[in-house]
TrEMBL record, chain A:
SUPFAM superfamilies xref list: 4Fe-4S ferredoxins, FMN-linked oxidoreductases
Originating organism: Rhodobacter calidifons
UniProt-listed PANTHER family: DIHYDROPYRIMIDINE DEHYDROGENASE [NADP(+)] (PTHR43073)
Keyword annotations from UniProtKB, A to Z: Iron, Iron-sulfur, Metal-binding, Oxidoreductase
Protein name (database record): dihydrouracil dehydrogenase (NAD(+))
A family per Pfam: DHO_dh
Catalytic activity, as annotated: 5,6-dihydrothymine + NAD(+) = thymine + NADH + H(+); 5,6-dihydrouracil + NAD(+) = uracil + NADH + H(+)
Binding partners and assembly: Heterotetramer of 2 PreA and 2 PreT subunits.
UniProt key word Iron: yes
Purpose: Involved in pyrimidine base degradation. Catalyzes physiologically the reduction of uracil to 5,6-dihydrouracil (DHU) by using NADH as a specific cosubstrate. It also catalyzes the reverse reaction and the reduction of thymine to 5,6-dihydrothymine (DHT).
Automatic annotation (TrEMBL), chain B:
Pfam family, one: Fer4_20
Residue ranges annotated for the FAD/NAD(P)-binding domain, each copy included: 144-425
PANTHER family cross-referenced by the UniProt entry: GLUTAMATE SYNTHASE [NADPH] SMALL CHAIN, GLUTAMATE SYNTHASE [NADPH] SMALL CHAIN-RELATED
UniProt-listed Gene3D superfamilies: Alpha-helical ferredoxin, FAD/NAD(P)-binding domain
InterPro entries: DPD_II, FAD/NAD-bd_sf, FAD/NAD-binding_dom, Helical_ferredxn
Ranges of residues in domain Dihydroprymidine dehydrogenase: 22-130
The protein's name in its UniProt record: NAD(P)-dependent oxidoreductase
Length: 432, 439
């Protein structure tokens, strides 16, 4: 079994799987059961300022999107930060940290955007012995309307300012949690770095409406006939999160800034993908909310088997794919592949044909006995057939060797060449 | 050979060579990768899953299925083996329809449980093919334990003891280890010599010495073992069989079903194994079904199971009964043998219809006869060769006594199933370990 112990900005945990700040981490009872199940760390449910806690709606607060067999693919919520009194949370955090020394315990914070408020809350959490703080600049609903959460996270200058206050008034490692509800994720990450953040974590939830009630004409979840946008999370948001993580990992301004990857992590494989794109650890919310704390056991066994099979350590995986994330213009235009259908695996459903014939390049032939074959002279290698085929690995993309003639273009497969030097590019530079 | 299913008497070679190969091929072929992924996707990862509670070895089923779903069948196998070291054979022979799969919530939802047994086989097959044995011998404790009987109970006990660092010697009276995995289970459930492969794989942990051909009571006594070892585990199964107590039982052609099956399992070329044209099997359990089905697969023309009570009382599951009828076996219920007729060899079985009465099962007075040139008795096995001095209750060892532990079919409690024997062997090993080390 590979060693999964993790050191994220000096915060140690027996594995890189943390629970994200959310209902699973809202109280001692949950967090202790999570630790018993094997989670490496938690970010406690976001604490607000001293005073009467926020209130939540008393009707449904979640909406969902399902796949086949009612598999939960996306969840949206209109929940706010913790609605329990600050003292209760602080007492429990302290008790948990005492008892679980080897696990990471980070406190998520969201208070009004003035220095005193931050100074005060940092002072209040000091003696919990928590390992660090995470600044919640992400919540897209409820708190933003009060000038907190994503209202701060969408203004890089505010992020920088608040982060600086936090670093000034606390010795704790500071993670800035980013909202994805922004056009360019690199800007808030750069601001966090300028403010002195030790790391960023992303993504928080995405503004969304999951469905509309077609009898009552209201967004779901419906509260007394009305609904509002909520934060979307779960497997459906993973691709968005992966891209944002990769953007920060490879941008010259933010390269090297530690990242805690969040968004749709459900299996060891999802986690490994985040790590490969530069995340130092991952945080999980929806998967635990869907399947329970035990889900971490599969993440642990799967990741360690993967590392063993690859004969690498956890730190070797982190960032391993970052050098291979590039811009479109640098992709090799002389890399030519053709779809290949494994006739033994094919069940003759015809989905590849429908997709290609109706919407793509008419590159799949169908015989009277429903044999499906690829017409190399038409196939542009778009990959759509691979994606719609219900049988994994039935259709694969096979590269043409260098020197072979592409029957579609009649041209020989040549050496690496990209758009920047392509003759059709009006601003192409001549190849050297 | 010119024999056919219609050839009278007990003769070999009733079928063509291909027919034997086809009939005795894997009863439930393994899932391929695609099938396994699709099957695994159906599991809901239930909380405190009912399937786990229904598995006698308490395998963490949701976890191992999720490990398959995420492309790590090797991790899945480790999950399985950590509870059930004979997870490979159990995946093949467990009557899942009355165990884990009966309890699956998707049985309640759609009448179609997650295929737990076949997924278990997929994971263990993949891992064994990769040569994986994810356990190592514990640091030597210097303690020595004797295990008598190399069936599922004894093997599971020995492996767990080895994991704890004890030195184990297994005494087995037969030439091969495996118990009924090797000599009893229907051959289409464990094809390709799987039972022996699994034994070799299990022993590869080290620290287990296997001594075949040594019989307790004949070659060694319990008191000798107790004197020489720190603990003794008895997993000797049920070596005896019940008698029919019908006149004519001693005629040629009348035989214990378990002996016939053992011979079948040890026959390399099934075309050489003689079988009757008209076979009658007496009994209502798994042994009766297996004897009947395999008779039919060997080319018998007519095979009939006769069970003395109503069909709902048969201990063979509905799934097994359906399997029997699907290959052409006829099942007659509420009838019991009263005499075996024939001149030297059996020719007919005379049966009486029965009714359940408050005083017990009674013949109705009406009788009938079935043509038979071969009769298999499958009316239950009994404890035989039990050493003196151990308490026996209900025909089985009552429980541990002193430094002697018991488990599997020979021990009271639990159903007589492979998976139950594994659980009892494993648990006895834990108890022994605790006693020997105080851990
Ligand atoms: C025909 C048949 C079909 C079956 N089919 C199934 C099935 O499909 N699924 C299922 O779950 N269960 C099935 N069973 C039941 C299952 O095989 C048993 O429950 C299981 O094998 C019990 O394991 P065990 O280790 O207790 O005993 P056994 O498997 O009987 O092993 C006992 C071992 O002890 C040895 N032994 C006995 N006496 C001595 C002695 N004095 N000295 C040394 N060694 C001794 C024996 O040779 C044997 O190897 C079947 C049983 C039979 C008879
Ligand atoms: C019900 C719910 C409440 C949440 N509350 C918070 C919160 O208080 N603070 C916070 O930083 N993020 C909160 N989140 C966002 C999660 O921490 C996480 O960033 C997001 O759900 C994406 O991860 P996932 O796809 O694994 O769920 C919440 C998410 C959910 C579903
Ligand atoms: S989609 Fe896949 S399975 Fe269906 S016809 Fe095409 S290649 Fe065959
Ligand atoms: S060992 Fe048998 S009962 Fe247990 S899960 Fe496997 S197939 Fe089901
Ligand atoms: S009961 Fe069925 S669906 Fe639930 S965990 Fe077990 S196998 Fe999966």
């Amino acid at each position: 079994m590979a060693n999964l112990s993790s050191d994220f900005i000096g915060i140690k945990s027996p594995n890189p799987f943390w629970l994200a700040s959310a209902p699973p981490t809202d109280k001692q009872y949950n967090v202790e059961r999570a630790f018993e199940a094997g989670w490496g760390g938690v970010v406690w449910k976001t604490l607000g300022a001293e005073g009467p806690p926020v209130v939540n709606v008393n009707g449904p607060r979640y909406g969902a999107v399902w796949g086949a067999d009612r598999r939960l693919l996306g969840l949206n919520n209109i929940e706010l930060i913790t609605d329990r009194p600050l003292e209760v949370n602080l007492r429990e955090i302290k008790a948990v940290k005492r008892k679980w020394r080897d696990r990471a315990l980070v406190i998520s914070l969201m208070v009004p955007c003035d220095e005193d408020s931050w100074k005060d809350i940092l002072h209040r959490i000091e003696d919990t012995e928590a390992d660090g703080v995470e600044l919640n600049f992400g919540c897209p609903h409820g708190m933003a309307e009060r000038g907190m959460g994503s209202a701060v996270g969408q203004v890089p200058e505010y992020i920088e300012m608040v982060t600086r206050w936090v670093k000034q008034h606390s010795r704790m490692p500071c993670i800035v949690k980013l909202t994805p509800n922004i056009t360019d994720i690199r800007k808030p990450a750069e601001a966090a770095r300028r403010g002195g953040a030790d790391a960023v974590s992303l993504i928080n939830t995405i503004n969304s409406i999951t469905s509309v009630n077609l009898d009552d004409f209201s967004p779901e979840p419906m509260i007394d006939g009305k609904g509002t946008h909520g934060g979307y999370c779960g497997p459906a948001v993973k691709p968005i999160a992966l891209n944002m993580v990769a953007e920060i990992a490879r941008s010259p301004e933010t390269r090297g800034l530690p990242i805690s990857g969040i968004g749709g992590v459900t299996t060891w494989r999802d986690a490994a993908e985040f790590l490969a794109l530069g995340a130092g650890n991952v945080q999980v919310c929806t998967a635990a909310m869907t399947y329970g704390f035990k889900i971490v056991q599969e993440m642990i066994s799967g990741l360690s088997q993967y590392l063993d099979d690859k004969q690498i350590g956890l730190s070797d995986l982190v960032g391993r794919a970052v050098p291979n994330v590039t811009d479109w213009q640098y992709l090799n235009l002389n890399y030519v592949t053709k779809a290949r259908i494994d006739q033994d695996a094919c069940i003759k459903c015809g989905r590849c044909y429908a997709a290609c014939e109706d919407t793509s390049h008419q590159a799949i032939a169908m015989s009277a006995d429903r044999t499906f074959t690829v017409k190399d002279e038409e196939c542009v290698a778009c990959n759509l057939c691979v994606n719609v085929c219900p049988v994994e690995n039935c259709i694969t993309m096979v590269p043409l060797p260098k020197g072979a003639v592409d029957p579609r273009t009649g041209r020989k497969v040549g050496d690496y060449a990209n758009w920047t030097t392509h003759p059709n590019n009006p601003s192409a530079q001549a190849a050297e | 050979m010119s024999n056919s299913p219609l050839t009278p008497g007990i003769v070999p070679g009733r079928l063509q060579a291909e027919a034997y190969a086809r009939n005795f091929a894997d009863h439930e072929p393994p899932l391929d990768r695609h099938e396994a992924r699709v099957a695994a996707d159906r599991c809901y990862f239930c909380h405190d899953a009912p399937c786990i509670a229904a598995c006698p070895t308490s395998i963490d089923i949701p976890l191992f299925i999720r490990q398959i779903a995420t492309g790590t069948p090797e991790a899945a196998a480790t999950t399985i083996w950590s509870q059930n070291i004979l997870g490979g054979i159990c995946a093949r022979v467990c009557p899942t329809e009355t165990l884990c799969e009966e309890a699956c919530v998707r049985e309640a939802a759609e009448g179609k449980p997650v295929e737990i047994g076949r997924l278990q086989r997929y994971a263990t097959d993949v891992a064994m093919a990769r040569g994986l044995h994810p356990f190592t011998r514990g640091a030597p404790t210097g303690k020595r334990v004797a295990v008598v009987g190399a069936g599922p109970a004894g093997l599971a006990c020995a492996h767990r003891l080895a994991m704890h660092g004890h030195d184990v010697v297994v005494f087995e009276r037969r030439p091969k280890a495996g118990g009924l995995n090797e000599y009893g289970i229907a051959s289409y459930k464990a094809t390709g010599g799987f039972a022996q492969k699994e034994v070799d794989w299990l022993l590869s942990i080290g620290g287990i010495e296997l001594r075949c051909g040594v019989e307790l009571g004949r070659d060694v006594t319990l008191s000798q073992l107790e004197a020489e070892y720190d603990a003794v585990f008895l997993g000797i199964g049920l070596a005896g069989v019940n008698a029919l107590r019908a006149p004519g039982e001693d005629k040629a052609g009348v035989r214990d079903a378990v002996d016939f099956i053992a011979e079948l399992r040890q026959t390399a070329d099934l075309a050489t194994l003689p079988i009757g044209r008209d076979v009658v099997v007496i009994g209502g359990g798994m042994t009766a079904v297996d004897a009947a089905v395999q008779s039919k697969l060997l080319g018998a023309e007519n095979v009939t199971i006769v069970y003395r009570r109503g069909q709902e009382k048969m201990s063979a599951s509905a799934y097994e009964q359906d399997h029997a009828t699907s290959v052409g076996v006829r099942i007659i219920c509420n009838a019991m043998p009263v005499a075996i007729h024939g001149n030297g060899a059996v020719r007919e079985v005379e049966l009486a219809y029965t009714v359940e009465t408050p005083e017990g099962l009674k013949p109705t007075g009406e009788t009938f006869r079935l043509k038979a040139d071969q009769v298999f008795k499958a009316i239950g096995q009994t404890l035989a060769g039990a050493p003196e001095g151990l308490a026996v209750a209900g025909g089985k060892f009552a429980g541990p006594a002193g430094r002697v532990w018991v488990g599997g079919d020979c021990a009271a409690g639990g159903e007589d199933l492979t998976v139950t024997a594994v659980a009892e062997g494993r648990d006895a090993a834990e108890a022994i370990h605790q006693r020997l080390t105080g851990a």
